[in-house]
Structures are given as structure tokens and as C-alpha cells.
Design a protein that fits this description.
Elements: E1 7-14, H1 19-30, E2 35-41, E3 46-51, H2 57-66, E4 70-72, H3 77-111, H4 117-132, H5 134-145, H6 151-170, H7 179-203, H8 205-213, E5 217-222, E6 225-230, E7 239-242, E8 252-256, E9 259-262, H9 264-267, E10 273-275, E11 280-281, E12 286-287, E13 292-296, H10 304-317, H11 323-350, H12 352-363, H13 375-389, H14 393-412, E14 415-417, H15 420-425, E15 431-434, H16 436-440, E16 441-450, H17 457-465, H18 472-476, E17 486-491, E18 495-500, E19 503-508, H19 515-519, E20 523-529, E21 532-543, H20 547-556, E22 560-564, H21 569-579, E23 583-585, H22 593-602, E24 607-611, H23 617-622, E25 625-629, E26 642-644, H24 650-685, H25 691-709, H26 711-714
Parallel strand pairs: 15-22, 15-24, 22-23, 24-25, 25-26
Antiparallel strand pairs: 1-3, 1-4, 2-3, 5-6, 7-13, 8-11, 8-13, 9-10, 9-12, 14-26, 16-21, 17-18, 18-19, 19-20, 20-21
Length: 718
């Protein structure tokens, strides 16, 4: 299939509460005709689909609603804030009732019986379960009414079963009351939901800050009159006026004026940059000193910020391969646990007398085990404990929370990870293949040194200002002040000449040797005045400040740095020597770089290719990980898995570090989630766990997974 026909859509899924919900929605979307790929992420409550053709929003909505959920295109902060406030309110109300009734339960059980306590349990438990926990009950009902189960189903059965025991006890039935346990189950669950919501929103704040940078209006010039228009009404080629102190509303090219622009919110560079006519500016950056007239070049989804936000949302909504294991387990986990809870309850009910000696011995070790002679009370005790302890919340959050934290941290460092699989693959990279120009170097020739007399610099700069030669701009920048030059003539393959005050000047190929300068990779031109040697100018594409340190870090990490460039061998080796690269492939064509990648892959190495994203497209696509260095235009390149928005090759070190850290956190999350369930479920089925302890352990495991994921953001190395 031609990739150009693919359509990518991001939208919010409403009503999901656990990993099983996400899996159910994902399966429903995959069954829609035309959808090639779908991924639903519980941590961000978003779905990401890739379709062969345009699919209507109504068709997607119908598919999701069939399994009990809904969708929305509203990704605004207001919705996030409303959800957070609702979770906070429910938590406060639940705790205001649960804490006092729990204290009373302990007094009632250990010290002194409280008259009418079972009725209090019915009222308090009913309020917490059916009012503050109404969202959980709704989630459980959605699942059950559509013939599947989720984590809310377990919470519903555990809390309601516990509450029913209090109801029966209050009517005089000889059964132990667990009404307070029902309230505690729901309160712990609501607490976990609140913490997850708070930390999830915190982890996604990079997207929110980007959205805040998007202007709502722009000052458009129509017939030299200013008209304030909403951003969504702006069209390509419109001219907008941006005054000092205003945020540039949209991507464009300066057609009049020059000014200092603060691009720190986008590039991370704290020093303002000078921008003038014919230079591009990015929407969201801040105009500091002078008014600018800007011709709009990108609108809507094509703008830099829109693409950045979209890419981050896409990768946070996608999955890494290791998540497939957790998804398969959680799909079957809930029904199996419910089956085990029922079976264990029945075994204890029908074999209570035979198992009493075992229980008496265990009670001396675990004093919280229910002390009763009623088989029904004990079977309910076991049933509730098993249901509660097995909630797979931690398992469902293990991967998505780590992915959200990892991609969020990457975005903060100026890295857009477009492909979620890159998070898992980058950690195994053994060879980094780099282009030279614009990757290791700045991609902009500059004068390194010269011997031109000070009084002649303005003349030479003015002559070169009229030339189209690639090195001319570097020389023309020697002086900001320009003068009128006569008789400008470019001599193909030799240089340029011009006249000033009846003196003729020539700038071009050197007649003398400059071995030391050439060994450093410098290009040398000579300047003559009336055929008399005036001096030389040495020009080079400066090495990025972070390149040398990055190469050192690669070697420490066990990664082989390789330079693959179309530049001449002498220049390539000079640059390679300065930054510390031993393996150099010079004079190769862009199409040959793919063969370089394949040669290393044939040796069993995972390869990462980094380039400017234009001439290196085939190699970027062919490598295990493709990294493009660039800003606005490079962001649209489909061949790269990772895009460096700010900085140079040192960001590849960050990419590998974030990948290793994220994958390590995912593995530790999954290990502890599995380990917790493997140990806890048999203990609960054996009657060794009190439901209150089970609920606390379940909530603690979920919170631990979320906090462990946020270690990615707190790692000082990153």
C-alpha cells in the first residue's frame, strides 16, 4: 500500500477505566473496515488509528459505542481539568465517610461493640459505593451489559458483596458484616484513580504547554489595513503583522523587517536569534524588538506546533511490542479471577469443617484472618479478598504510563519520538551512522580566519554579497555595512571580481598552498587588489558544540560512531579526527548511504542513521532507527522515527538513554505487577488475606507503577 494514502486520526475515548476497557475498544476499532492499525492508550485515554481511506467520525463512534464507550475529538485542557476536579471531589467525599467508619470498625472489632454499627455500615457503605463510586459502577455496567468484564467489574463485585453482608447482618442474618470493607474497597479505588489522573496529567504537561503557545488570532494586512482574524481563518500567503512583544501566530517567511526572536519555547535555546527578510519563523515564538511583516507558509495541521503536538499524541497513543504480552494477559485476567474467586468461595463453604484445623494454625501467624464458625461468612471473606487483590490495574498501567513519561521527557529535551517502537529499539543500537554537513557540523559555512586588512573588509564583503556562490554568504557576513560595487562579474569555477574607487578586486581559488589549513578541512580563497595579493580567507562548516562530547558518550555506551558523507575525503577525515570518529566513509552518494546501513545490519548490528532528513531519506527509512535533525520542514519527513528539534547529535545520546531507562522501567513495572498477582491471589484464595489488606496492597501496587514510571522524568542523567 502506498503510505501517502494513509490517514492518521487521534481522538479521545470516553468511559475507559482499565486496560481491559482499552483492549475492548481497540479490538472494536480493528474490526472497522478500512482500519489498518489501531492502538488505544489507557494512560492518555486516546485512540490512534491508521486507515487506508477516509473514515467518518460517525463510523468510528458507532464501533466504539457498540462495546459501551464513546469518543470525542475534544482534547482540550478544560476537559482534563474537569476530570481531575471530579476525581478530587469524589476522593474527598469518599474519605470523609470511609475514615470515620473504618475507625469505628476497629473499635467495634477490637475494643467495644458499637450499638447499631451494622446499620451505620449499610448507610456509610451505600453512600461511598453507590454515590462517590458511581463512575466505577457505570464502568462495570457498561462492560457487563456488553458481555465483557473490566477492572470496575471486580471492584463492583467486591464492594457490593461486602455491602450486602452488612445489609443482611442488619436484618438479623447470622453472617459476618463486611460493609466497611466495601466502603474501603471503593475509597481505595477512588484514591488510586485520583493519583493516576493527577500524575497522568502531570506527565502530559508538555503537550499542554505547546497548545498554550498556539495563538488564537492574528493581525492580517489587507490593502494595508490591519484586520484581526481567528487563526483557523488564516490562509496560506496571507501577510500578518507582528509587533514587538507579541507571539508570532503562525509559520511564515519574513518579507519586511528584522528583529530578535525568542524561540526558546520551541528550540530550547535561551539566546534570542536575529531573523530578517527571507528567513522563516515559527508560530509560537516571541517577537522581541521590531515589527515584522510575515507571509504565511503553513496553516492548520501543517504548522510546526500542530505537527509537534500531533506526533507526541500519536506516539503516546501507540504501543511498544512488549505491551502485547500485558494486553493478552489482561484480556483474560478478569474473567479468570472472577472464576477463581467463586471457586475458592465454594470450596471453603463446602469444606469449611475439614479446613478449620489449617485455619486455626494460620490464625496464630495472620491475626487478621476472620474468626468465625459460619462457613458462609468465611466463604464471602475469601471471595471478596480474591476479587480485590487481583485487580489488574498495575498490569494495565505498567507500559502506557512509562511510555507517556518517556515520550514526555523526550519532548521536553527537544526530541519528538514519532514511532513508539523506537522507544524499545533504541536501547539496542550498536552503530550510529551520521551525515557530516548539518549533523556533525552546523551546515552553515563560516569564516574561521583571514588576513585581509581591516579597511578592505567592507569592500570584500560587499562584492561577495552580490555573488551566488555557496561560500559567498559566509564572506559577506564579515561586515554588516555594505557599499556599492561596480562591474560585478562571476567567473565560473574561478571566483568573482568587482570594482570600487577605480580599484579592481578578485576573490577566488588560491594560487598558493595552504597545507595546514587544508589538513583541518578548511576551504581557502585568496583576495587580490589590482592583481596584487591582498590576503586569504579560510572558510569551514563549524562543528556543532555538542558533537565531540556526543561521540565520546557513544563510545562509553558501547556504540560505534560512523561518518557517512558525500564530502571529499580530506575534509571528512579532518572533521572526523577533531570529533573522534575512526570509521569514515567519504565521497558517497545519498543513495549509497542505504548500502552502508545494510552492511552494518548484515553484521548483526542494530543501526541508527542520523541526517538532515532530505538527502538521507532512504538511509533513514532503512535503518533500525532513523533520526532527522531539523525544525519546521524536517518535521514533516515520514522517513524518520525520531526528530531532533533542538541541538545536535548529543540528542541521540538522550534518545538512547531515554529508551534504555523507559524500557527498564517497563520491565520492572511488569515484573512487580506479575509478581504481586502470582503471590497475592493464592494467598487470598487460601483465606490468608483480609479484604482491607488486599485492597490496600492493590492500590499500593498501582500507585507504585505510576511513581516508578515517573522516575524517567526525574533521572538526573537525562
Amino acid at each position: 500500500m502506498n503510505e501517502k494514502t494513509e490517514k492518521k486520526i487521534n481522538f479521545r475515548v470516553v468511559g475507559m477505566t482499565c486496560a481491559t476497557c482499552a483492549r475492548t475498544v481497540e479490538k472494536a476499532l480493528k474490526n472497522v473496515e478500512g482500519i489498518k492499525f489501531s492502538a488505544v492508550n489507557l494512560a492518555t485515554e486516546t485512540a490512534f488509528i491508521v486507515s487506508e481511506d477516509e473514515i467518518s467520525f460517525e463510523k468510528l463512534k458507532e464501533a466504539v459505542q457498540k462495546v459501551g464507550y464513546d469518543i470525542s475529538t475534544d482534547m482540550s485542557q478544560d476537559l482534563e481539568k474537569k476530570r481531575y476536579q471530579e476525581a478530587k471531589k469524589n476522593l474527598i467525599l469518599a474519605l470523609l465517610v470511609t475514615i470515620p467508619i473504618s475507625i469505628m470498625m476497629l473499635i467495634h472489632m477490637i475494643w467495644k461493640e458499637i450499638p447499631g454499627f451494622s446499620v451505620m455500615e449499610v448507610i456509610a457503605g451505600g453512600y461511598v459505593i453507590f454515590y462517590t463510586g458511581k463512575k466505577t459502577i457505570k464502568g462495570a455496567w457498561i462492560a457487563l451489559s456488553h458481555f465483557h468484564t473490566n477492572m470496575d467489574t471486580l471492584i463492583l463485585f467486591g464492594s457490593v458483596t461486602s455491602w450486602i453482608t452488612a445489609l443482611l447482618n442488619s436484618f438479623g442474618f447470622p453472617i459476618a458484616s463486611f460493609g466497611t470493607i466495601g466502603a474501603m474497597i471503593m475509597a481505595f479505588h477512588i484514591t488510586g484513580r485520583f493519583i493516576e489522573s493527577h500524575l497522568r496529567d502531570k506527565a502530559a504537561k508538555e503537550i499542554k504547554s505547546l497548545m498554550n503557545m498556539q495563538a488564537k488570532e492574528a493581525r492580517v494586512l489587507i490593502d494595508n489595513e490591519e484586520l484581526l482574524m481567528p487563526i483557523n481563518a488564516i490562509k496560506k500567503d496571507f501577510v500578518v503583522l507582528v509587533k514587538p512583544g507579541e507571539r508570532i501566530p503562525i509559520d511564515g517567511e519574513i518579507i519586511e523587517g528584522n528583529s530578535s526572536i525568542d524561540e526558546s519555547m520551541i528550540t530550547g535555546e535561551s539566546i534570542p536569534v536575529e531573523r530578517t527578510v527571507e528567513e522563516k519563523v515559527i508560530g509560537g515564538s516571541l517577537n522581541l524588538t521590531s515589527p515584522l511583516k510575515i507571509k504565511v507558509t503553513n496553516v492548520g495541521e501543517d504548522t510546526f506546533l500542530s505537527q509537534m503536538i500531533k506526533l507526541i499524541q500519536e506516539v503516546q497513543g501507540a504501543k511498544v511490542p512488549i505491551q502485547a504480552l500485558a494486553d493478552r494477559i489482561t484480556l483474560w485476567f478478569v474473567p479468570i479471577v472472577m472464576f477463581l474467586a467463586i471457586i475458592s468461595g465454594l470450596i471453603w463453604y463446602f469444606n469449611f469443617e475439614n479446613l478449620q484445623p489449617f485455619m486455626q494454625n494460620m490464625r496464630s501467624i495472620f491475626p487478621w484472618i476472620l474468626n468465625t464458625t459460619d462457613p458462609l461468612s468465611f466463604s464471602v471473606f475469601v471471595f471478596v479478598a480474591t476479587i480485590v487483590i487481583a485487580c489488574p490495574c498495575a498490569l494495565g498501567l505498567a507500559t502506557p504510563m512509562a511510555l507517556v513519561a518517556g515520550t514526555g521527557e523526550a519532548a521536553k529535551k527537544g526530541l519528538i519520538i514519532r514511532n513508539a517502537e523506537a522507544i524499545q529499539t533504541s536501547k539496542d543500537v550498536k552503530v550510529v551512522i551520521m551525515d557530516k554537513t548539518g549533523t556533525i557540523t552546523q551546515g552553515k559555512p563560516q569564516v574561521i580566519e583571514h588576513s585581509i586588512p581591516e579597511e578592505k573588509i567592507k569592500i570584500i564583503a560587499s562584492i561577495e554579497n552580490m555573488s551566488n556562490h555557496p561560500l559567498a554568504k559566509a564572506i559577506s557576513e564579515l561586515s554588516k555595512e555594505k557599499i556599492n560595487i561596480e562591474n560585478i562579474e562571476e567567473i565560473a569555477g574561478k571566483g568573482v571580481k568587482g570594482s570600487y574607487n577605480n580599484n579592481e578586486y578578485f576573490i577566488g581559488k588560491p594560487k598558493n598552498k595552504y597545507d595546514k589549513l587544508n589538513e583541518k578541512g578548511y576551504t581557502v580563497v585568496e583576495v587580490y587588489e589590482n592583481n596584487n595579493f591582498l590576503g586569504y580567507i579560510a572558510i569551514a562548516d563549524k562543528i556543532r558544540e555538542d558533537s565531540k562530547k556526543a561521540i565520546e558518550e557513544f563510545k562509553k555506551m558501547g556504540i560505534i560512531p560512523v561518518m557517512a558523507t558525500g564530502d571529499n575525503e580530506k575534509t571528512a577525515k579532518a572533521v572526523a579526527k577533531e570529533v573522534g570518529i575512526e570509521e569514515v566513509l567519504a565521497g558517497i552518494k545519498p543513495e549509497d548511504k542505504l548500502n552502508v546501513v545494510r552492511n552494518y545490519q548484515a553484521k548483526g548490528y542494530k543501526t541508527l542513521m542520523v541526517g538532515d532528513g532530505m538527502n538521507d531519506a532512504a538511509a533513514l527509512k532503512g535503518a533500525d532507527i532513523g533520526v532527522a535533525i531539523g525544525s519546521g520542514t524536517d518535521l514533516a519527513i515520514d522517513n524518520a522515527d525520531v526528530i531532533i528539534v533542538k541541538g545536535g547529535v548529543s540528542k541521540i545520546v538522550d534518545t538512547v538513554e531515554i529508551s534504555r531507562k523507559t524500557f527498564s522501567v517497563i520491565k520492572s513495572n511488569l515484573f512487580w505487577a506479575f509478581f504481586y498477582n502470582v503471590i497475592a491471589i493464592p494467598a487470598a484464595m487460601s483465606g490468608l488475606l483480609h479484604p482491607a489488606i488486599a485492597e490496600a496492597a492493590m492500590a499500593f501496587s498501582s500507585i507504585t507503577v505510576v511513581l516508578n514510571s515517573l522516575r524517567i522524568k526525574e533521572d538526573k542523567k537525562l
